Amino acid sequence: MSDSKEKSYNKIINRIIPKISRRVMLSASVAFIIPSIALAVEKSTRNKSVSKTVHKNSAKSVTKSPAILGKAKRALPVVILDPGHGGKDPGAVGYSGTYEKHVAYATAVELSRQLMRTGKYNVKLTRNSDKFVPLDGRVDFAQVNKANLFVSIHADALNNHSIKGASVYTLSNHASDAQSAALASVENNADKYGGPDVHVASPAVQKILASLVKLETKRESVAIAQNVVNSFKPRLGLLPNPRRYAAFVVLKSVNIPSVLVEMGFMSNRNDEAALRRAGYRSLVASSMCQAIDRYFAIGGSVTHLAG
Ligand SMILES: [Zn+2]
After folding, report:
1. 143 and 36 in one domain?
2. With pLDDT > 70 as the criterion, what percentage of the chain qualifies?
3. Ligand 1 centroid to 89 CA: how many Å?
4. Residue 14's pLDDT band (boundaries 50, 70, 90)?
5. Are residues 25 and 139 in the same domain?
6. Last residue of a domain, one of 33, 60, 87
7. pLDDT at 99 over 90
8. Where is the MurNAc-LAA domain (predicted)?
9. Domain at 279, CATH number
10. How remote is the CA of residue 164 from the centroid of ligand 1, in Å?
11. Three-state secondary structure along the chain?
12. How far is the centre of ligand 1, averaged over its atoms, from the C-alpha of 154 (Å)?
């Protein structure tokens, strides 16, 4: 989409999204009000019958108010962590032979532990062991679980062993630079391990709503990506221009804010050595945990407007 077209789309969204929000709030209010009215009617009817009962039985029995058993819990935001590669797909092979799939998984497990400890999120991993999951299977998993946020975790390799540092990607059909395009093409190649049965997901959502949701999702994705970069900056080494974009298949959910975090390069000796250390992975995870906290604290996501 051209810049001017996108700007005019954004203007439309700014006008329409508040309406959608109002609509959502209105539906929520109606849902709240109707049970309240029902409860009030039920209570008044019950009180009438209670007073009759009390009158009838006079001093024989004392009627107690029903006990308040509890209140409904608010659903926690669902965060899907996606450790890259797995099983027959090792991902990048590091400077001294470390597999990317192991580093990605270990970091995802640590991040999951830290997020769960906050008690604020429902966290799920796209794989819970060293197994192969096709790219569209990862996207489908996020959809089935009605994710509010999708975070894919990687540490790839380049032919140039001197390049190091973390970077954070969001989806775009046009890559921010040649290096990002090359990375996306390597990542998207993971499906070659899946054989011919792997199908391409085809989101069949209504066209207009889908495009509105898609643009809002893009904004949210950029917001979480920027939060991750801000958290990494004072603690970890970053690539120059660490906020990048490219056409990663795993980021293609229309309605779920999605980012792909490259924690560093396995092809760089220092990055690989750092990512092999549990202490360093814990630092990466705590930075991401902080970014996710900040993201949800300022409004989180608008996922699943499309239903
Ligand atoms: Zn990877």
Report:
1. no
2. 69
3. 10
4. low
5. no
6. 60
7. yes
8. 139-293
9. 3.40.630.40
10. 15
11. CCHHHHHHHHHHHHHHHHHHHHHHHHHHHHHHHHHHHHHHHHHHHHHHHHHHHHHHHHHHCCCCCCCCCCCCCCCCCEEEEEECCECCECCCECCCCCEHHHHHHHHHHHHHHHHHHHCCCEEEECCCCCCCCCHHHHHHHHHHCCCCEEEEEECCCCCCCCCCCEEEEEECCCCCCHHHHHHHHHHHHHHHHHCCCCCCCCCCCCHHHHHHHHHHHHHHHHHHHHHHHHHHCCCCCEEEEEEEEECCHHHCCCCCCEEEEECCCCCCHHHHHHHHCHHHHHHHHHHHHHHHHHHHHCCCCCCCCCC
12. 4
Residue 166 vs residue 174, higher pLDDT = 166
Provide the residue range defining the domain that includes 51: 3-60
The alpha carbon of 75 and the centre of ligand 1 are apart by a number of angstroms equal to: 32
If you search the block for the tokens 């990494």, which residue do you land on? Answer: 232
Shared domain check, 121 and 8: no
Expressed in angstroms and rounded, the spacing between residue 267 Cα and the centre of ligand 1 is: 12
pLDDT band at 102, cuts 50/70/90? very high
pLDDT digits (tens, 9 = 90+) for 206-219: 566 667 778 888 99
Q: Cα of 156 to ligand 1 centre, how many Å?
A: 5
For position 37, what pLDDT does the model report? 33
AA identity, residue 300: G
pLDDT of 170 higher than 80: yes
Ligand 1 centroid to residue 84 C-alpha, Å: 5
- The model carries a pTM of 0.72
Separation of CA 248 and ligand 1 centre (Å): 10
**What are 154-165's pLDDT values in tens digits?**
999 999 999 999
